[in-house]
């Protein structure tokens, strides 16, 4: 059907309109629809239009305004030409064989004037936005109707042919263009505050994603493989539109970033033929999700998405899944998704993981699900028995694994964000008190679960192995995340009372004393302020980025520690040699802060040595010397010390 025919067909339809928009204090009278989440955003019923009865064409209900509106009507921002006018004839004498030089003429004579612009009034802008919204709602309603109708069809229903798929793509493309026009107009520099707020009040980014992209993508996904080519085309179309909005409508930058990550993940998921293409789109999606998590580090949903993209690295997957449940805004759906990681290990299915990694993941699967309890002790034993030799073999490559393991163990102590966990309850209650009566009442009122006791045994046995590696720089990231967890818990006496007797405080004090010898700035580690170089821009450690957003680092880092850091996304996990000293100072500072109460660790400022409270002053058998521990780890095959080795990209380790 032609464009004019479509226009005639809809000439008698009355599109809905936005409520009147005022420009003064009364603008708050604009009624706003109820918006709950990105996953469930609908425009209000009063704003919806009803299509004429008998209209069966899925595309021909596009409003007349959409088809007949000229480019000049939506070009709200005049564009200034940056081109320099060439010299006029007779102004420059140019010899044959020589190039014209701009220095040969008076520059002021060739500058062009600013193009004449037509200012747009508030009334015109409001009318434009209302017109765009009217057409948008009509197209949106048709998209919802068509998507629902197609989704309800059974497998026995007739398959869509190529022309029908193209028609559906054209319909959704029209909706995306309408949203684009709406955002440009409502966010115009001349727009009033009331006009600018409309996009948020009516949840336009969420509606664009849900009705313009996501519903249709799900329809295409369920029709695979027949719809593959059309799905690819639509993903590219939607990705281009989101990238354009990311550049032109920065007000909703966070929404565009996450949408770009979602589109990249869709594209990655349907790529089965070319592994290189799959890896490219995995990297693209990971980039956007990582960027989104930097802007919203407390949002667990983003870590869940990163966990999916972390395949086949099971250790990294476990880290991201656990983190998604142990942040201030947990993503509870991750409790179902994480089982896709655990199921093969719980069922005894063969995997391609190293035995030590498989044992670690299997132990967490048992702790998380409560299934196969008979396999817990053998799995923990297998991991613990192999750990020391594994660290010795992998040397600096274990630095990344170290903070992944340390964070996963911390999450296991919180029972992966379970609200019934006694530690979680204390942390979320914010009951930072040293009152003895309150402490004893809290301990008596809430007994730790068996899952917490099993996780505590697993964690402390791991500590016992790692903290015996005195002088080994490969284990300092693990020490760092462990001390940050204990430092936070030390502010909650009731919570600490449940685990303090099992923590190997003596080994921790000995490990810290091995780092004291390398410290050159005792004023930094003995002060109360976070140790940082105020003369330089912050350079967070890889383990800082890994911990960012977790419940136990909420008050750990300075407010500008990450926001003021000028680091590209791909460099966040790049380990450089200078970080070793900073990480050691950080560990010593955390140890000193824990020792300030003298309840677990103690610190002698005169001797500059750490020790433990009398109740933890126990003899430890089979203590290795520093030379025993680092003989194989400090010296690489080429004779270079790991302490002074080349820079390492932690992501590739």
TrEMBL record:
It comes from the Eukaryota. InterPro entries: DNA/RNA-bd_Est1-type, Est1/Ebs1-like, TPR-like_helical_dom_sf. Gene3D superfamilies: Tetratricopeptide repeat domain. SUPFAM superfamilies: TPR-like. GO terms for cellular component: telomerase holoenzyme complex. Signal peptide: none annotated. Residues 1-96, 634-653 are annotated as: Disordered. GO terms for molecular function: telomerase RNA binding; telomeric DNA binding. Transmembrane segments: none annotated. Residues 286-382 form the DNA/RNA-binding domain. GO terms for biological process: nuclear-transcribed mRNA catabolic process, nonsense-mediated decay. This is Telomerase-binding protein EST1A protein. It comes from Colletotrichum chrysophilum. The lineage of its organism: Eukaryota, Fungi, Dikarya, Ascomycota, Pezizomycotina.
């Amino acid at each position: 059907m032609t464009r004019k025919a479509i226009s005639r067909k809809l000439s008698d339809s009355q599109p809905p309109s936005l409520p009147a928009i005022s420009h003064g204090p009364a603008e708050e009278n604009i009624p706003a629809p109820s918006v709950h989440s990105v996953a469930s955003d609908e425009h209000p019923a009063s704003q919806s239009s009803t299509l004429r009865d008998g209209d069966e064409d899925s595309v021909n209900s596009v409003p007349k305004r959409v088809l007949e509106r000229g480019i000049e009507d939506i070009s709200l921002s005049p564009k200034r030409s940056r081109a320099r006018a060439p010299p006029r004839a007779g102004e420059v004498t140019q010899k044959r064989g020589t190039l014209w030089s701009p220095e040969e003429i008076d520059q002021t004579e060739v500058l062009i004037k600013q193009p004449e612009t037509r200012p747009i009034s508030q009334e015109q802008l409001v009318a434009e936005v209302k017109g765009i919204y009217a057409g948008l709602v009509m197209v949106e309603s048709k998209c919802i109707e068509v998507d629902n109708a197609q989704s309800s069809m059974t497998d026995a229903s007739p398959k869509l042919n190529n022309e029908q798929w193209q028609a559906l793509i054209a319909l959704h493309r029209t909706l995306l263009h309408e949203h684009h026009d709406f955002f440009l107009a409502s966010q115009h520099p001349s727009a009033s505050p009331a006009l600018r707020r409309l996009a948020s009040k009516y949840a336009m980014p969420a509606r664009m994603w849900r009705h313009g992209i996501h519903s249709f993508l799900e329809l295409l996904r369920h029709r695979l493989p027949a719809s593959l080519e059309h799905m690819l085309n639509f993903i590219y179309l939607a990705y281009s539109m989101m990238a354009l909005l990311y550049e032109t409508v920065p007000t909703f930058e966070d929404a565009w970033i996450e949408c770009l990550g979602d589109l990249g993940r869709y594209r990655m998921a349907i790529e089965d033929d070319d592994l290189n293409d799959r890896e490219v789109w995995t990297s693209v999606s990971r980039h956007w999700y990582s960027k989104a998590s930097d802007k919203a580090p407390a949002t667990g949903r983003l870590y869940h998405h990163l966990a999916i993209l972390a395949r086949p690295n099971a250790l990294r997957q476990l880290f991201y899944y656990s983190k998604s449940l142990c942040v201030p805004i947990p993503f509870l759906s991750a409790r179902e998704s994480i089982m896709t990681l655990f199921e093969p290990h719980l069922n005894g299915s063969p995997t391609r993981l190293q035995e030590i990694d498989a044992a670690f993941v299997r132990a967490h699967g048992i702790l998380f699900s409560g299934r196969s309890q008979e396999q817990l002790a053998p799995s923990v034993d297998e991991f613990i028995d192999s750990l020391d030799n594994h660290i010795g073999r992998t040397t600096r490559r274990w630095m990344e694994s170290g903070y992944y393991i340390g964070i996963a163990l911390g999450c296991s102590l919180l029972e992966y964000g379970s609200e019934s966990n006694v530690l979680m309850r204390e942390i979320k209650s914010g009951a930072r008190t040293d009152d003895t009566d309150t402490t004893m009442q809290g301990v008596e009122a809430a007994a730790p679960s068996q899952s917490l006791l099993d996780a505590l045994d697993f964690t402390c046995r791991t500590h016992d192995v790692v903290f015996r590696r005195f002088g080994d720089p490969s284990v300092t990231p693990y020490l760092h995340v462990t001390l940050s967890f204990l430092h936070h818990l030390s502010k909650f006496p009731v919570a600490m009372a449940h685990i303090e007797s099992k923590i190997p405080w003596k080994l921790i004090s000995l490990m810290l004393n091995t780092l004291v010898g390398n410290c050159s700035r005792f004023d930094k580690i003995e002060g109360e302020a976070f140790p940082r170089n105020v003369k330089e821009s912050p350079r967070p450690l890889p383990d800082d980025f890994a911990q960012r957003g977790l419940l136990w680092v909420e008050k750990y880092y300075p407010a500008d520690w990450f926001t003021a850091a000028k680091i590209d996304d791909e460099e966040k996990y790049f380990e450089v040699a200078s970080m070793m000293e900073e990480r050691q100072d950080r560990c010593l500072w955390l140890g000193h802060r824990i020792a300030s109460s003298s309840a677990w660790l103690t610190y002698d400022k005169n001797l500059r040595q750490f020790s433990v409270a009398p109740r933890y002053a126990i003899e430890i058998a089979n203590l290795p010397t520093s030379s025993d521990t680092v003989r194989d780890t400090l010296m690489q095959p080429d004779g270079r010390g790991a302490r002074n080795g080349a820079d390492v990209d932690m992501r590739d380790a």
